[in-house]
Sequence to fold (221 residues):
Amino acid sequence: MKSWNELGYEIQRVISNTVIAPGSYILKFKKNQPFTAGQVLALGVSKDIEPRLYSIASAESDELISILYSERTDGKLTPMLSLLKPGDNIMVSQPFGTFTQVKPSPVFIAAGTGIAPFISMLQSGKARNATLIHGAPYPEYFYFSEYLMNTLGEHYIRCCSRCAPGCLFVGRVTHFIKQWDSLDINKPYYLCGSTEMVVETRDLLISRGVPVNSINAEIYF
Ligand SMILES: Cc1cc2nc3c(=O)[nH]c(=O)nc-3n(C[C@H](O)[C@H](O)[C@H](O)COP(=O)(O)OP(=O)(O)OC[C@H]3O[C@@H](n4cnc5c(N)ncnc54)[C@H](O)[C@@H]3O)c2cc1C
Fold:
């Protein structure tokens, strides 16, 4: 990861920093430069902490940048991000990244905050006829679920690993994919989340017949 001096940054004022679920936040600040849905920014509060990357979770046409992040209590930056108040300063790099090429009828598979780039793609009108499979431990961590239910209907699938049986699929994303009757090997697949989730999901898709070059991934940590 590049240093702050190599990356370059500007100082932005926080517009809002809202708790949307326990330990999960949406941080907003003004957009100063255009970006392409799927890109990331480096954020920071001081040069003493190395830059951390965050996917942009807003539409390309929005005037504000939204960042969805979860606080790691053992982390260096996120406990500090969670304290930010409107008007506070934040270090923001230019947008960059190549997880931006979306083919028609994509299948998005995300764990936790890995949903962020897909929200940006959907809200930017760049993901026609999409299916989204999202994994989270509890119902409150299905971020943007109202928007996704309205936009994707039955093509929005929530895999809840610690829920009691009910209206959501109970289990992890990988459990869902193993038994998914409608898996279409001709569609393009886009994965976003931890290394473990991405590797496991990719291997599973390949074992079910999806060509390796139809699988694209963004790894968070
Ligand atoms: C391309 C890219 C895009 C990213 N986009 C986002 C995003 O949109 N939202 C977001 O919340 N994070 C995102 N991340 C992760 C983010 O950069 C930080 O790693 C994360 O916020 C933790 O930072 P920290 O300084 O608090 O913790 P650190 O001090 O860096 O790490 C503390 C520990 O937590 C682990 N860890 C880090 N993130 C997570 C996590 N989300 N869940 C479980 N364990 C974790 C680390 O491996 C480490 O062991 C992205 C990472 C990459 C590489």
